[in-house]
Specification:
four-stranded parallel β-sheet; alpha/beta; 10 strands; binds iron/sulfur cluster; single chain; 309 residues
Length: 309
């Protein structure tokens, strides 16, 4: 049986885990193509107007997966005790279901209920036995650990780590590139910001390239614990960038994202009190490449004047 996975949202965080789990259980996996204009337009036409850009893009990716028996889109509730994902991610399977023709498989991932609860969910949704899922999940978790290790040790993007590529990324200045992975690594959505920075001899450091323990330690510096796990990771990475003495920070945020609005403000205050310039680029489906590049050029000129080589 062939299952389709959208190359959107938590794909950049969890794809090695789900691919290994499904393939070990005997499923084939098909991923939608990289985001393009047709996928964006499809997503915008299918999604409610008030959805954030990454959710709209996910609608487009789900519709773009072809020749599969079903789509696989877990309902991501909580990855760790005491934390939650954004309500739009929790409700995503219900939001997208009316726009789909085929079957949608959505196991609930709620690790507040423990690993056994997850195994039972997966076995029930995938129609397999508990023991089979238990074994496949152990392999999948190992694949996921290796994926995270590669990104952190070799300073790779998720795409490079997944494809076994190496990176020769260097630069005369290091910039922190902050934001949800689906904004930072979707080159269509962010107008290829990683390449843009590299062409200017800058090294874009991202949260996924930092040790997880460091991010957690930095997130604990916040006066109040953030219960949104992705946003706690972004804030932790932002504080870690300041400790790493980056020349500046670029924060990619999404129009219509409540969590981004809050952490954007918190990060701005932190960066200002450390004297590190921060540029926030808010992306939506109307954002034009020329406007983004003009703001980036002005920000980079300012950084280069502050930190001459
Ligand atoms: S965190 Fe923000 S960008 Fe991500 S799904 Fe939720 S609202 Fe959308």
């Amino acid at each position: 049986m062939n299952l389709g996975i959208p190359r959107a949202l938590l794909y950049y965080d969890h794809f090695p885990l789900w691919r290994t789990l499904l393939e070990t259980l005997g499923f084939e996996v098909t991923v939608s193509p990289p985001t393009n204009k047709a996928i964006l337009d499809l997503g915008v036409s299918l999604a409610p107007d008030e959805a954030c850009l990454p959710v709209k893009i996910c609608y487009g990716h789900l519709a773009a997966v072809r020749n599969v028996a079903a789509l696989f889109l877990p309902r991501m509730v909580s990855e760790k005790a005491g934390t939650f994902l954004c309500p739009k991610l929790i409700g995503l399977p219900d939001m997208v279901r009316p726009s789909l023709d085929g079957e949608l498989i959505s196991p609930v991932v709620d690790l507040r209920k423990g690993r056994k609860g997850l195994i039972r969910q997966l076995a029930c949704c995938l129609g397999t036995g508990y023991k089979q899922v238990q074994g496949a999940l152990a392999e999948a978790e190992e694949a996921q650990r290796q994926f995270l290790r590669r990104m952190q040790q070799d300073k790779l993007t998720p795409q490079e780590a997944m494809s076994g590529q190496n990176s020769c990324r260097r630069g005369k200045l290091t910039l922190g590139l902050l934001g949800h992975p689906y904004l930072v690594y979707d080159s269509f959505l962010n107008m290829n910001i990683l390449s843009f920075l590299q062409r200017r001899d800058l090294f874009p450091l991202t949260a996924q390239m930092l040790p997880s323990e460091k991010i957690q330690r930095c997130a604990q510096q916040l006066p109040k614990k953030l219960f949104w796990s992705l946003e706690a990771q972004i804030m932790g990475a932002g504080i870690a960038f300041l400790e790493e003495k980056v020349a500046g920070i670029i924060h990619l945020s999404s129009f219509g994202c409540g969590p981004d609005a809050m952490i954007g403000e918190l990060m701005n205050l932190r960066a200002r009190s450390s004297g590190v310039p921060l540029l926030e680029l808010n992306l939506d489906e109307q954002t034009g490449q020329a406007g983004v590049e003009t703001r980036l050029e002005a920000f980079l000129d300012m950084l280069q004047r502050r930190c001459p080589a």
